[in-house]
Amino acid sequence: MKPEELKAKVEAALEEIRPFLQSDGGDISLVSIDNENSVKVRLEGACVGCTVNQMTLKSGVEMTIKKHAPQIVEVVNLA
């Protein structure tokens, strides 16, 4: 898969999860995709400092990204 195709899939996944984050006053942005298997994101707004943001990242964001782009093995939040 071409890098731009992978980025489009990851962005589509973020668009899918974004309304849930925004409903709680937060947001998420894509920082980078490394080695075509590691995604770096930045949780924003109310998500920063939220006590459940690691759970949100793993169970919500990572799961959704992997659904769109199965080759992704990890999603990392850059604080």
Q: Can you characterise this structure?
A:
The protein has 79 residues and is α+β, with helices and mostly antiparallel strands. It has a single domain, classed as 2-Layer Sandwich (GMP Synthetase, Chain A, domain 3). Helices cover 47% and strands 27% of the residues. The protein has two helices and three strands, in the order αββαβ. It has helices spanning 3-23, 53-68, and strands at residues 26-34, 38-45, 74-77. It has a three-stranded mixed beta sheet, covered by helices on one side. Strand 2, helix 2 and strand 3 form a beta-alpha-beta unit. Helix 1 (3-23) packs antiparallel against helix 2 (53-68). It is globular, with a radius of gyration of 12 Å. The mean pLDDT is 92.
**CATH superfamily assignment?**
Fe-S cluster assembly (FSCA)
Largest sheet: 3 strands, mixed
Strand order of the largest sheet: 1-2-3
Strand content: 25-35%
**Rg calc:** 12 Å
Query: What form results from the Cα inertia axes?
Result: globular
CATH class membership: Alpha Beta
The residue fraction in helices comes out at 40-55%
Distance between the termini: 29 Å
Stated plainly, the CATH topology is called GMP Synthetase, Chain A, domain 3
Mean pLDDT value:
92
Order of helices and strands: HEEHE
Structural class: alpha+beta
Total separate domains:
1
Total beta strand runs: 3
Helix tally equals 2
CATH architecture: 2-Layer Sandwich
Low-pLDDT runs of 5+ residues are: none
